[in-house]
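Help! Submission page says 'invalid entity' but I think these are all valid:
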Amino acid sequence: MSDLTLPMVRRRPLDPPDELGELRRQAPVHRLTFADGHLGWLVTGYAAARAVLADPRFSNRPEGMHPPLPGRMELAKREGFRVPPGMFLRTDPPEHTRYRRLLTGQFTVRRMKTLEPRIAEITEEHLDAMEAAGPPADLVEAFALPIPSLVICELLGVPYEDRTRFQEDARVLFNLETKAEDALAAVGSTMAYLHDLIQRKREKPDDDLLSGLIEGGELTDEELTGVGFLLLIAGHETTANMLGLGTYALLTNPAQLAALRDDPSIAETAVEELLRYLTIIHLGPLRCAVEDVEIEGVLVRAGETVAISLPAANRDPERFPGGDTLDVTRPATGHLTFGHGIHQCLGQQLARAEMRIAYPALLRRFPGLRLAVTPEEVPMRSDMSIYGVHRLPVTW
Amino acid sequence: MEIKADTTVCIGAGMCALTAPELFDQSEDEGTVLVLRREVPAEQEDAVRRAVNLCPSGAISAT
């Protein structure tokens, strides 16, 4: 009935696979054959993507979800597998609501504003270190990864010295080639670390998010471990890849870089546009219909899995005219990079604050920043579930 | 134009507070929507429409 499988191959590093745009031009929703043979759907249109993400008749629980790509998604199909308690992203209300409510107060716009001076300080420290070491540098290692990593560690109360362990686990976990056993081992390793940390915090609480949750007394140690895992891993890989890939995008679009460097007051707008244009959540999200739902004239049957292509939706010309072009002055809010509906990114206001501070600071410090290799030589994260650059050699 | 908000639906994403900070804030404990001013001044109507459109959970409306 359908021979369409999820298009994966990019012709140009900053553009999603051409087939996705082609599909979107034909229709917003298409039949898609999943890796296990399941016949589900692929959404490429903006309005349809938003509709699915906002609709409570679609579940985000992994049970009954079919994987679009072979690999670690098979995990959920294993007998006895369950989402560890506290990993609330893959739950539905009312379970989801309970966890999220305990956390939303910690990530408000106002709360993130109070973190800005510390984020700026961390940013400047890393720029100082880069400057002192002199060019060239790998911007991922020197800037893009450590800044969000340090920020989320301080916020949660996770010792930054222990980062090698969970950063390595995150790399394994986000690699599309990782076997189910290895993904489970990586989850287990960071979970064990966090479980241990929570015991120590229970005895000796500090002024941080995890200690606050412990003192709140509403979560078991297992739940706290799951919540901590989700926040720690999500807080790392996302902003880090936006900073790395965003800088690559600016360096390969010099007029856009100059616009932001010469007028840092557009940072807020530029950040939204980079989020939209780059859409580093390049595979999924997935949803499973729990009852029959009509989306843009297409009847999705109960039990069918829907894969939503956020990169395709975010370039839908009906919502973002000329969306295949990076334009840091474009009003790009409303993009779906943080998702939509009840699972929309909890840490989005933190991510915004980090990017609003870090990009202009980088360009202010190194106005002549440029790639130290050709654009083609930069290794792209096509093999990872969150897109970005593996390394970004720069000089100034 | 008048704002209505449903804190039982709100997921505390903060898009309203980001988009129209003069009219929306978030509660300290749960991060859910706080309407600072129910009646919308004419010059804020566009911002409120944007905020309503951006709200991921459909917790706010304006009529």
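Support: the input was valid. A stray whitespace character was the problem, and the output above is from the cleaned input. The first strand of chain B starts at residue 3 and ends at 5.
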